Structures are given as C-alpha cells and as structure tokens.
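Researcher: Structure prediction, please.
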Amino acid sequence: MMKLLLVMFSVISPFSVQPAAAVPAAQDMQWTVVEEEVPEVNLAADRSGPVQHFRTLNGISLNDSKGHILAEKGQPLQKKVDPYLGCPEFEFNDVKVGLCEDTGEIQYVHIDGTEGRLKLNEQWIDMDIESIREVLGEPYVVAEDGEVYLRGHQAIKVYMKPGTERIDGVDLFEDHLQ
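Model: Predicted structure follows.
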C-alpha cells in the first residue's frame, strides 16, 4: 500500500521529472483580438405602440377595490366562481372582473369579443385586431389562440378564434412571468 502511495505521489508531484515541451514566451506569440458579437434583443418596451402603460380596461384597473368597482359599475349582473382561480367572477354590462374577495386582488379584467369596442386608458378602440394593433403596436407574443401585449408587469391578451382574426375576448392581467 505504501509503495502505491509513493508511486501516485511521484506522478502527481510538481517535483516529478517529466520532459517539458518548449513553450514560446508570451511576447513571441501572435495575438488576435476578437470582438464578442452581442445578439439583438427586442424587448417588450421596444415593441410598444402609442400606449405606454395599461391603466384601465373599460374603466377597471387591476389596482381597484371591490368597493370602487361597485361604485363605478353598480351591482353585478351575475357572480360565479372561476373554476381555474377559485375566485368569483363579477359580470357587469360591459366587462367581467375576476376578483379574489379574500385578498381583494383583481386577477383579470375581461371584455367579450361581441362588444363593438373596448376602452383602454380612457381611449376607445374598435374591437378588431387591426385597430388594436394600431394602438398597441407589435405583439410581444403571437400564440395559437391570440396575441399578447406587455407593458411593465401588466399584459393584455387578445383572444382570437384559431386561424382567423375574429376576436373572442380581451383580458388585462398581471404578467407574473417576467
């Protein structure tokens, strides 16, 4: 065992005798400077249209309270539990609001595609994809079921029937993926 340790030590020891190849000195070597290529990145801010922030959709902000919504919109036409969030969805004449009453947080604001237009930050927009693109600019993501527009940590998704430009609905929500 001791012989094995001595052999291993002699092999890995810096004092072991091994033939060295001639290494040129640094001043004798040719140096080439290579500039690193940085890929172009298009951030969501680069894709924005005239609307720089999403404050309200049909008069509802994601920061509104239940009391404020009821004061603005009146009593809901219907209140049902959203099976995905487990929170109630309040349906008003022109908008649906997913509001978790225990936390007071608005999860989403939804406008049905059958509405003739939507109101984003006090600006009316026709409910067709070309009008929306004109106001919001190029989408951040184009998915099979629609287009997503980002501004900071808020997102608007325009849901469309697959293979068409017919709008099913528009949602405003917090983007937790950034």
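Model: The first helix runs from residue 2 to 12.
Researcher: Thanks, that helps.
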